[in-house]
Amino acid sequence: MAKGLEQHQAHQAKLMALGKDLTRRAGSKCELCESAGVSLRPYEVPPEEEEPRVESCVFICDTCREQLDKPKRMNVDHWRCACQSVWSEVPVVQVLAARVLDHLGKKEIWAREALADVYFDEEVESWISLKAL
Ligand SMILES: [Zn+2]
Q: So where are the chain's domains?
């Protein structure tokens, strides 16, 4: 049990250590909703890897994070931002935004339409389908 906890803490420490690189990539804005001047933290896009990497993390605000943790309670209007972020040049941002749109698309036509408009690389496409939100 203690070992699991230690591993978890080591993993979290590595994740937080990515903050500097992620700040640079994100330009100090939430990579999903573009909020600026808010606190941003690394978020690992599932499935988690043994070693967190910049390429598999996004840098996001607490509002986005809280809602990603509880997809059933998503504020639909907040996630209009995903229509933009799904076009990001950063693959992992595309992946997460696409999963959000896919999730909301069960009820929201605009989300389905936004997703249908995007062209994804094959690699990104199969990454998206690894896991639902
Ligand atoms: Zn955000």
A: 2-130
Ligand 1 midpoint to CA 51 (Å): 24
pLDDT band at 99 (very low <50, low <70, confident <90, very high): very high
| Helix 91-104 with 109-117: angle, nearest 10 deg | 150
For ligand 1, an ion, list residues with CB under 5 A: 30, 32-33, 35, 60-61, 64
78 C-alpha to center of ligand 1: Å? 9
> What is the pLDDT at residue 3?
82
Q: What is the mean pLDDT of residues 31-55?
A: 95
Quick check: 86 and 119 in contact, CB under 8 A? no
